[in-house]
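Q&A log
Question type: sequence-to-structure
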Amino acid sequence: MNGVVREVGGEASVGFVRDLTEPGAADALVDRTIDAFGQVDIVVNNAGYNWDGLLHTMSDEQFQAQLDIHLVVPFRILRAAAPYLRGPAETEAEQGIERFRKVVNVTSVAAALGQRGAGNYAAAKSGLIGLTRTLANEWGPLKINVNAVAFGGISTRLAAPAQSSIAVGGHQVQVGRLRSAGRQPPVRRWRPG
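Response status: OK
Response body:
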């Protein structure tokens, strides 16, 4: 971890290793940030992994796990960070100071198009867009810019063919996209308008 911290930002960064889906983890993350830097100016919600499966074979636990990491965790982090974003912003507004703070929620094109074998992921990322829009309305007047970015395919271990696994809630979950066996029906893409 220390090597990663040095590589990312040296003295200007700190590490935090914990399962973010655990109750209290988001609060601990924000507390660690405040202890190290005294303030929060930007939040980027980008934690995640995939636990793919076709919808008709997916367990409740598998579906919930993706909601937890891709939607519940960002909610908890933003709720924990709210006093440190909103409080100073309200004070500055009263003093006529214009200072912008940022929230960036990383979603996916799967939120709009769906993704075969990842209905749990697509549903969670769709929910993240709704959360982002709500916070943009609530926090925007305080000069807190709340945005979502939806990337397409990016060469990461999340998008690569499944080759490794991670431990999640007592399960070994393959990291990466599952390969489908056999001939697949054509994919129908949803197009707005």
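Response note: The helical segments are 2-8, 25-37, 60-94, 110-113, 119-139.
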